[in-house]
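Translate sequence into structure tokens.
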Amino acid sequence: MKKKAFGIVLLVLAALVLLQGNFGIPSLGGHIWPLIGIGFFAYQSVEAILRRHFTSASFTALVAFMIANHFYDILPIPNQSLFWAGVLIVLGVGMLTNSNKTWNEKKWWYDAEKTILTEKEVSFGSGTFYKQDQDLVEDQFEVSCGNAKIYYDNAEMLGDSATLKVEVSLGNAVIYVPQHWRVDLKVETSCGVAKADAPVAPTSKTLIIRGDVAFGKLGVVYVK
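Result follows.
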């Protein structure tokens, strides 16, 4: 879903490039490449607002506006002033909305087996999470402009397989798994990399990893 939404943003930017100077659309003055950065950070800001992460939304919106103002002279304000004003805005929004945490966790019951799932998120920071459930069925995490390490080396699956949903954008994530797990890695990448190490021992369980990686890196490492 994230990859498709970003694709729509790129199509809109392509329309702006083709129609600039016509139908009331201002000319870009030859500065076309900055539109990619503007579109990406604007998309990240909207997505953060929908998730009610207002601190992240303020920061990404500020970055998009600074890029636009630098190349297209939207306001007669130097970027240095915009930067310091943006720092104050981000801090203020974080204090007012209490959304300035870089690591959030939510827990809920999965089914009658009382399997607890944990949703993890790292945004503009770094985090390390140790998963030690002995009845893993499904899990998910999201990394945006940050770095995360998730350890499953002491976890066990309830059945023969478990599903892990991941979303990585402008960040890096490393998943550590035990040697007896096989990894089925099928994530969509957009200017990103997803790679899993080869098994080093016979496997009896399967970890199914699905999701998206955009402008980031996802790695799966076997713990020896």
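Note: The chain has two domains: 2-97, 103-222.
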